[in-house]
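Title: Prediction job returns without error message
Component: structure pipeline
Severity: low
Priority: P3
Assignee: unassigned

Description:
Job completed but the reporter wants confirmation the result is attached to the right record. Sequence as submitted:
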Amino acid sequence: MRSKNLKLSLNISIIITLVVFGVFIIPRSVGTPLPKTSSIGIDGIITEDEWSDADWNISFYLDVNNTADWNGKINVDGNNTMYLGQDRSNLYIALDLWCDRSDNSTGEWVGVWLNTINRTFDDLTAWMGYLNDGAESLIHNVETDQPWDPFKDYDTGHTQYLEDDNAYTSIYGETEGTWSNFQYFWRDDFNITSELVSSDHLYRLDFSIDIDDWWPYFEVYDVIQGMEVDIRTKSNITIDNHDIIFWYNDGSMPPMTDSDQVKPLNKGTSYQTEGITYGMGNLTTDHQFKFSLIGNHTDPFTINLDVLTFAFFLNASNSVGLVFWPLSSIKNYQIEWGFGPSPGNTTDHRMFEISIPKSELERYKSNTELGIVVGGYGTMAIVGTNWWVFSKVNYYVPYMDSSQYNYYKMIGIPSKAIPGFNILLILATIGLISIVIFRKESKKL
């Protein structure tokens, strides 16, 4: 009887041990290979072997302009292919553009926009707010083989307004109105009634504006060429002094004797619009724009402030294919392109291969649903445009509208295989446990 119990105990111990270790063995089966995409060569030539194990192979149709280019090449309507793949380190994208029969890189660009965690956005502000936080973009200038420069060399004007009452503080004087009264001349004025300070009647408004609140999505300081404060005021009586004072870049207020920082304003009883140039060197290190409005007179007075706006002169947006803010959040990537046959089409055509490190894709997970829009221009373009696009619509590039992205469930990355010495260790452990149980049972005999 004891012999039977001994055998039963031994068998049970082995089974239990195998089950316990099997939990770890099965998901990490010996020799589980990485996806073949880990061996993709980013050379711009799509071959069957390197993309055969991609997560997705998507065919999409383009109706393109069939006018011959300068070299007599004619782009054709038809199907194209997009491949999506990954390994543990990179996301891979290939574009097999069967319709693009031209090898002319003049003015050529290609763009990829990603939604890595199902962010929801439907306008430029919302999309920009998610850049590097679930929304990603990559626009490459094929002609120069550089990331697309989002700005041109010449500048253009942008008017900005106060956006809340936290931007100003009344030091002296009683105010009537809110930030919205500064914006347009047809609205009610923002009024300031002076107060008696010592022997003089005085008003003073201090302003502190964070430039980042106006342009939070890119380093605007590198592309601002100048700035002007536009102000329209009058007084109920002609007053002795009325000035705007631009604070120093250390955040301190200059003395009234500093003519570089103190500029005169209208002192009269009729509205006058004035544009005062602001030196960008006065911005503080944390990008605060500080200034004060000050007026004084021997008698009480009221200032009617009709308009206060800010004109910035920035390098113009270098828009591309209806992408008016061609910003690239992905800075580190590898891209190559080629021209020739591919497994799907033996006629020479344009191809792209792109590798993006997953470290560039904040919040991306290997088994996630990936949203993507791709587009570009070579000489291939949708009829009536100067670009092509693959998304849920084809009449614009909907990078700022998450509902128009195409979404694909990525397969995920297999767990690492257990090294051979770990398997030997498991087997040795099984044997050791079995021997211990066997000896204990033997002593009972």
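Comment from assignee: result matches the submitted record. The domain at 157-317 is CATH 2.60.120.260 (Jelly Rolls).
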